[in-house]
Design brief:
CATH architecture: Orthogonal Bundle
Number of strands: 2
Distance between the termini: 52 Å
Order of helices and strands: HEEHHHHHHHH
Strand order of the largest sheet: 1-2
Strand content: under 5%
Largest sheet: 2 strands, antiparallel
CATH superfamily: Tetracycline Repressor, domain 2
Radius of gyration: 20 Å
Number of domains: 1
CATH class: Mainly Alpha
Structural class: mainly alpha
Length: 241
């Protein structure tokens, strides 16, 4: 769904262009503990935060717009100022999640010392850390069925794909630099290298989040070390002997 200016309303254009919100829209909502109205500085942000809180509390992406409104302390009709349904909130959170993940991955790659392969492998720990620190957002980012809407969402489907592709591109850039440096085996294609590394990185992250390898209470202590060990083990079969 497009705003009156032709932009996808799921995307936080202020973050994309400026890095922070440049303006605030005042919206009249209801106080949590009464019926007196007050001005909400950023209704859209409050709704997204409320949805994430519900997912985190419940452990599953199960919420309604009415529940989101109640959590945000606004009237049950307020969410419709920004989102037509739950699918649109999920789309907005997915785009935002991939944007944040891309920035974190790119920063890790650029600031890690060492060879291109070492810098590329460092991305995996940032990927894991993002998932551990943002479990609610991460649980929504890879659930396309939750973004199915009865409304025409083609414009924002493209925005989701663009945000996801930008995050993947960080890994691809690292692989390309490693190939050019002669570190990865020449007979392995870019697609095969990307599949080997991304599937290991994502698969291990999901297993850790599900508590299948390390107890959840010990994740912060052991998870990153395990990710490093596994990624380096996989890389041994990809690099030039």
């Amino acid at each position: 769904m497009l705003s009156q200016y032709g932009q996808c309303q799921y995307i936080n254009y202020d973050i994309l262009k400026y890095g922070q919100c440049q303006y605030e829209k005042e919206v009249c909502v209801m106080e949590q503990e009464g019926n007196r109205p007050y001005h909400h500085g950023d209704l859209r942000r409050a709704l997204l935060d409320a949805a994430l809180q519900l997912v985190e509390e419940r452990g599953i992406p199960d919420f309604t717009l009415r529940e989101v409104a109640r959590k945000a302390g606004v009237s049950h009709n307020a969410p419709y100022n920004h989102f037509a349904d739950k699918a649109e909130i999920v789309a907005a959170l997915t785009i935002e999640g991939f944007q944040k993940l891309e920035l974190a991955m790119r920063l890790a790659y650029e600031q890690t010392a060492g060879t291109p392969v070492e810098r590329t492998l460092a991305i995996s720990n940032v990927y894991l850390r993002f998932a551990l620190e943002n479990p609610a957002a991460f649980s929504l980012m890879f659930r396309p069925e939750l973004r199915q809407s009865s409304h025409d969402g083609r414009e924002c489907d493209e925005a989701v794909k663009s945000a996801a592709d930008a995050a993947v591109q960080v890994l691809l850039d690292g692989i390309s630099a490693s190939q050019q440096a002669g570190e990865f085996r020449a007979e392995l294609s870019m697609d095969m290298l990307a599949l080997a590394l991304s599937s290991t990185m994502h698969g291990l992250t999901v297993m850790l989040l599900d508590g299948l390898l390390v107890e959840k209470k010990a994740l912060s202590e052991e998870a990153e070390q395990l990710m490093t060990q596994v990624m380096h083990a996989v890389a041994q079969g990809l690099v030039v002997p």
